[in-house]
Design goal:
By secondary structure, the chain is of the alpha/beta class. The chain contains 8 helices and 16 strands. The longest helix is centred in the middle third of the chain and has 23 residues.
Length: about 350
Amino acid sequence: MSGAQNYINHVALVLDASSSMSHLSRKVVEVADQQIAYLARRSRELDQETRVTVYVFADKVQCVIYDKDVLRMPSLKQLYRVGGMTALLAAALKSQRELAQTAQLYGDHSFLTFVLTDGQENASHRSPDAPSRNPGELVTSVAEMIENQKVNWTLAVLVPDQMGKREAMQCGFPKDNIAIWDATSTQGLEEAGQVIQQATEKFMVGRTQGIRGSRAVFSTGADAVNTDTIKAAGLVPADPSKYHLIPVARAAAIRDWVVESGHTYRTGGAFYQLSKAENVQARKQIAVLEKKTDRVYTGPEARSLLGLPDVEVRIKPDHNDDFTIFVQSTSVNRKLVPNTQLLLML
């Protein structure tokens, strides 16, 4: 289609403004403003047009900014006011229904919405923005809406606890588009902002690789990897003569095990299998192994594939039947875990 390379992102923040958010209200503004500044910077760097919409919800759902150029966004300071109950389902329905009326002409348009709430739904059945007064029917309406969203729509939610996660899943939110945040502190909100930023980075980088929407926007681990995402990321397997896969039979330092296995240790050439959640620095390389073929994929695209930004980030192994993640070791004493594999790049 004409103008397909013209990427246009419609990013929406749907923010809980119920009374229980009052202790966080200043921080909400700060975190939202940081997210908007980050979006502006990445839009310039990736040459993507980004338009921002902001909804706030308590008893009622209010659109305070609609589809505005990210480079011209004001601070939310004057626009975010707390007070009232939590019309969460009405906010999800209204935001997506209104955004669906946005023109999608001349370009590759994609919609990404983050809903942030600190509590359970308790007011939508009274909201003028809800299509029904029946709570059960509202849950069904949200589930049907999500089910029918097109491939270029991503709807994600941040909830305060496991109960919130269960309720979000009942409403049809894909499990990897639900994140839990600590709603009791400003530190928790700061961390929620980082999670949103990381998910947005993954989304925007994915856009350049032909990915238009995601049902796993919060996953940064093996569950983000499949043959489609590998193809979309433009990954090419490494030459099989350029690496060895070495089984790890016992706990040992990485250099000792490489030498014991009859190979030469070179700093940065050995990759350990990710076996537990840990922080991975921006400079560390990532490799992905396809189990059934023993093909290995490396390079910056492998980081993008996992949705990892170019900053230190926490990554989890996540069980995946088809792929294994390896992380570059720059330490000679890195302790290897028995019954994992070591990838040695030659």
